[in-house]
Design goal:
Elements (H helix, E strand, L loop, with lengths): L1 H51 L9 H14 L4 E5 L5 E6 L5
């Protein structure tokens, strides 16, 4: 009887550790997802400031934008950048193509 109680106790400890590890894994995944979204927002804000500094109605040629994006991709830990217009179509892209 006492031997069985010890095994049950050890099994409960093991299950609680496994549950705790699962919870921590999900928490860290969500934190990483939020950090990635925040960094993407920071990059897009910086890029929009640069584009706006060219003038309100200034036309910036696509090759010039893509050259700037390629420099951004090569100089940081970014793998790819895609600029979208208001309807969601890609206007300019740099880096590796994104998997769809």
């Amino acid at each position: 009887m006492r031997k069985n109680l010890i095994y049950v106790f050890l099994a409960l400890i093991g299950l609680s550790v496994a549950g705790w590890q699962t919870y921590e894994h999900q928490r860290v995944q969500e934190l990483a997802r939020r950090n990635l979204a925040g960094r993407a927002h920071d990059f897009s804000a910086a890029l929009s400031v640069v584009i706006r500094s060219q003038g309100r109605m200034a036309f910036i040629p696509r090759p010039r934008i893509e050259a700037a994006l390629n420099e951004l991709v090569n100089s940081t830990e970014l793998e790819s950048v895609v600029l979208l217009n208001a309807s969601g179509d890609a206007v300019a892209a740099a880096g590796k193509p994104l998997p769809v």
